[in-house]
Amino acid sequence: MIEEPSNKRVKPLSRVTSLANLIPPVKATPLKRFGQTLQRSISFRSESRPDILAPRPWSRNAAPSSTKRRDSKLWSETFDVCVNQMLTSKEIKRQEAIFELSQGEEDLIEDLKLAKKAYHDPMLKLSIMTEQELNQIFGTLDSLIPLHEELLSQLRDARKPDGSTEHVGPILVGWLPCLSSYDSYCSNQVAAKALLDHKKQDHRVQDFLQRCLESPFSRKLDLWNFLDIPRSRLVKYPLLLREILRHTPNDNPDQQHLEEAINIIQGIVAEINTKTGESECRYYKERLLYLEEGQKDSLIDSSRVLCCHGELKNNRGVLKTSSESVSRMDPKVRPTHYKPMTPSTNSSGLTVFVKPKKQFCVLLGRLGCLTPRDHS
């Protein structure tokens, strides 16, 4: 056997090798298009946009700007053609809608598992982030997987050998109430997104996420895209159920159950929307730093709604001052004008100005968040 010279220089193993060994093989299957959401249920506004890292000049395979999606699968193309010929056009559309619901659950489960295996576990093992930080960013994502596996199992059991499904209403009425557990996951997203954005300033985190983004398994989706999938799915349920109901005959026993299911999910989405809004308002209130006692307003403590917030810019889109931001809590509370502290003092604190600037009042007036007394 030929031995290597003892004085030969050996390059240290790169992070790529470690990462490749940690990330299990995952099918490069696409993420199903969730379409338009029912409503802007969770108010992430501008910061909710996917933060796709800019391609580095030295990167071999810079990630293209476009995002790969899963190819849509149709019920009529998946199962027996002979069965399709026996059904009416309306019934085929009903089967397609039911199949879309089932296929969406399968895609969701696959993506949630991928988020854990390809992002959470490697970052923990490589000590790229602490366990506490990962728990904050990923929240209760693990607990959502069994919920959707249960629905998928029931939908598959209800499917006949020929691929058609007769009734889904009773299944949905029994399963949908468990989605109330989404409130903790969605309420955590404000803090999770803020922490993830902050951690991206760490070179190791940025490097890991960029390598994942350039890998086939990610389908060019950023980590936050995967973490936001449960919310996107949640607000799409009413649309999916209405589509099934629209193609269900009036004399079908499933119609009454579907109407009940729609009422259930609308109530759940509304409740989670409210709790998430309160969580976002609380997040910003906790980060307000008052330079003077006189700045404090008791109404801010009791506020539960954040009406608007964002960076203060002129009509050309340029920040009026560095990193300056504005916030508006409750209609009864005077507008809050703050500037984030520098990282050397407090990276998460927001210093409150004594008086709002004129540009700030004009901005809030345009947004409809300003009451007449706020101008005084």
Automatic annotation (TrEMBL):
Q: Which domain of life is it from?
A: Eukaryota
Per the annotation, which location comes first and is thus the protein's main one? cytoplasm
User: Which keywords label this protein?
Assistant: Cytoplasm
All copies of the DH domain together span: 93-275
Region (Disordered): which ranges? 320-346
List GO BP terms, alphabetically.
Answer: intracellular signal transduction; positive regulation of Rho protein signal transduction
Q: Which PROSITE patterns does the protein's record reference?
A: DH_1, DH_2
Q: Name one Pfam family in it.
A: RhoGEF
Cellular compartments annotated: Cytoplasm
Annotated GO molecular function terms are: guanyl-nucleotide exchange factor activity
List GO terms (cellular component aspect): cytoplasm
**Which protein is depicted?**
Rho guanine nucleotide exchange factor 3 isoform X7
